[in-house]
Amino acid sequence: MRDEEKDQRVLPGLPRLALGALSGALAGFAALAVAELVAGALHPQSSPVVAVGGASIDATPAEVKDWAICRFGTDDKLVLQLGILAVLTVLALVLGVLAMRFRRVGAVGVLLFGAVGATAAVGRPDSTGFTDALPSVVGAVAGALLLYVLVSRLTAVTFPLASATESMAEEVGAGPPTSEGWDRRGFVLAAASAAAASAVVGTVGRSLNASRGQEAIASRRKVVLPPPGSPARPAHKRAGPRVPGISPFVTPNDDFYRVDTALVVPKVAATGWRLRIHGTGVRRPVTYSFDDLLRRELIERDITLTCVSNEVGGPYVGNARWTGVRLADLLAECGVKAPSRGGPADQLVARSVDGMTIGSPVEDLLDGRDAMLALGMNGEPLPFAHGFPVRMVVPGLYGYVSACKWIKDIELATFDSYDAYWVKRGWARKAPIKTESRIDTPKPFARPKAGTVMVAGVAWAQHRGIDRVEVRIDDGPWQEAHLAAEDSRDTWRQWSIPWQASKGGHTLTVRATDRTGTVQTDRRARTVPDGASGQHSVVVTVD
């Protein structure tokens, strides 16, 4: 009988499977911990979980991605990472069980998953080269070796059977079963040591990742935004009605929505940041530093941003006071002209440090609107989650065709020659924001008391402006709501209307009319390919 077959008879079935699975889990934990350490020393985005997560996002159909954003909101990335870890855990358990019978198969399986992580890391748009494969490769080798060693030790041990079996053996004079090589205590010690070492290695790796961002954090603290040469007008005293439950006119930075594909928020130091402008129709390519932008005249504007993934009545819209440099001025200095004036480029391709590409219509950027490279948000330097050190802000266009965060490169091109990230995945090339409105209060399924109930919310049609908001109770007539004072046509507008609520169930519906006379349609459309449409309704029960 072969030694391996003899070893496999040693352990009873259930303990054998359980200890094999434990060995696989420990090997998987060690592989991820070592990979985290190497990634922390080289490039945090090359971590296998981050790389595979990014590749998964890229490969996910637009409809599925949109569903995840609507279902999980800003937690979609956390859910994805937890899902990847759950899958890896299950696979590690299976490989551990397989390794109990075929030691080399388990180790090779770990190496194969390392190859998947390495391929994903090298293939990412923000990859720094083949060194990004090292975290997955080194981690996989460490995990494979640990699995082989643990299973080798495990199958070399004869574990005592149940106590009844031991007693029976002693009665016939055979004595208790003996161990060959390590005993149970030795295996537990080895497994515990591996777990402790992996925990330490993983902690060090995370510390390295955190320390790599300290320079960026320190540089942001040192940024002092100079007074804008063209400040925003003071907010109108009547820009926000005092109705409990309505969204504030200015959205605080911590509450501002975040929708992007970055599993790890990039932390770029302002001191080392550079922006290159080049491409078709650029007479003189130029590179700007952060200080170069600070020395230019800054503008300050209140601008409402909207995500194309925002469902009717959804939360992915917010208003902030942005400070930055006019994008049109920078482009003009490079010789860029609008297509309507003979310019050869009709698309501006913005590239982010995380590899994202966003294509914006050049004609819209040069039509006089306050398109900017923003450096500040609500009176402070941009938060990292919202694009520090510099991002694009363009009123009137959905974010996926305008709001490039962590921008590092601008290339002038044509729509026929290049499709940006989201266009390749089925979204429209041009996406002006649709006229929309939302009921903030009362909330869906609320139970207000009979009598006067304030119905209130926000409406937006950036770069066109809101002219009228109407509310309908059940199937009754449309009633015009009171509009708060308009700050500008690039911001949302708050509205309210008192409702004499009677007992029973009711449906409240809102619609807006923009300054061009376009009435918000009641025809429902999904977010893909160019934004959702329809009228927002809430159902309430009046007590």
Structural overview:
It is a single chain. It is built from 13 helices and 18 strands. The protein is an alpha+beta fold. A five-stranded mixed sheet has the order 2-1-10-5-6. Strands 3, 4, 7, 8 and 9 form a five-stranded antiparallel sheet that branches. Strand 7 (372-377) and strand 8 (380-381) form a beta hairpin. The longest helix has 30 residues, at 13-42. The N and C termini lie far apart (81 Å). Mean pLDDT is 87; it is low at 1-11 and 157-183.
Give the arrangement of secondary structure elements.
Layout: H1 3-8, H2 13-42, H3 48-59, H4 62-72, H5 76-101, H6 103-123, H7 134-155, H8 163-171, H9 184-212, H10 214-222, E1 274-279, E2 286-289, H11 290-294, E3 299-306, E4 317-326, H12 327-333, E5 347-352, E6 357-361, H13 362-365, E7 372-377, E8 380-381, E9 391-393, E10 407-413, E11 436-441, E12 451-460, E13 466-473, E14 478-480, E15 482-483, E16 493-501, E17 504-514, E18 536-542
Parallel strand pairs: 1-10
Antiparallel strand pairs: 1-2, 3-4, 4-7, 5-6, 5-10, 7-8, 7-9, 11-12, 12-16, 13-14, 13-17, 15-16, 17-18
Helix pairs in contact: 2-5, 2-7, 2-9, 3-5, 3-6, 5-6, 6-7, 7-9
Task: Briefly say what this structure is.
With 543 residues, the chain is of the alpha+beta class. It has helices spanning 3-8, 13-42, 48-59, 62-72, 76-101, 103-123, 134-155, 163-171, 184-212, 214-222, 290-294, 327-333, 362-365, and strands at 274-279, 286-289, 299-306, 317-326, 347-352, 357-361, 372-377, 380-381, 391-393, 407-413, 436-441, 451-460, 466-473, 478-480, 482-483, 493-501, 504-514, 536-542. It has a five-stranded mixed β-sheet.
